[in-house]
Amino acid sequence: MAVRLDHGSDELDELHEINVTPFIDVILVLLIIFMIAAPLATVDIAVDLPQANAQPQPRPDKPIFLTLKPDLTISLNNEQNVPRDALASTLDDLTGADHEQRVFVRADKVVPYGELMTLMNVLRNAGYLKIALVGLEGEALQ
User: Fold this and answer.
1) Of 57 and 16, which is predicted with more confidence?
2) Is the model's pLDDT at 93 over the cut of 70?
3) If 123 and its partner were Cys, which of 70, 128, 129, 136 is the partner (CB 3.0–4.6 Å)?
4) H or E element in which residue 131 lies
5) CB of 87 closer than 8 Å to CB of 126
6) Which residue has the higher pLDDT, 142 or 87?
7) pTM to 2 decimals?
8) Cβ atoms of residues 105 and 133 within 8 Å
């Protein structure tokens, strides 16, 4: 706000100042939006995977292989097809309800990623949190 002490003429001089208050308000609103949205952008999926050039881990005596075939059927230990809704009870019968056993998940290359994630969510809801993804051994990365 300008105060004029000289009452000589009635003309008002223009003030060339920028009002930065709306700019600061917009910046603060954007800051709040980013502070709220940043934690929501992270994904938290616990997966126990070795590095690509890791040494082979000792194989359990009786590994549990869960295979997702190209036609999206689930096979347990290459022997029996298991319906998705009976997977938890079938795994409990096989492991004696030992949720600490590692489940080795294999999927065909043509299986959509979303279907693999759905299968992993079914395993997670059944209480099997030690999941290992099986792949072909390749050359070590350098």
Assistant:
1) 16
2) yes
3) 128
4) strand 131-133
5) yes
6) 87
7) 0.54
8) yes
d(CA 122, CA 81): 16
Question: For residues 41 and 44, what is the distance between their CA atoms, to the nearest angstrom?
Answer: 10
Please report, in angstroms and rounded to a whole number, the separation of the first and last CA atoms in the chain: 67
Distance CA 124, CA 127 (A): 5
125 residue type, one letter: N
The single residue listed with the structure tokens 């706000």 is 1
- Quick one: tokens of 46? 């616990």
Place of tokens 């949205």: 37
Please give the structure tokens belonging to residue 76.
């347990």
* Nearest one of 99, 106, 96 to 125, comparing CA atoms: 99
Tokens of 102: 């590692």
Return the residue matching tokens 């000289």. Answer: 6
Look up residue 63 and give its amino acid: P
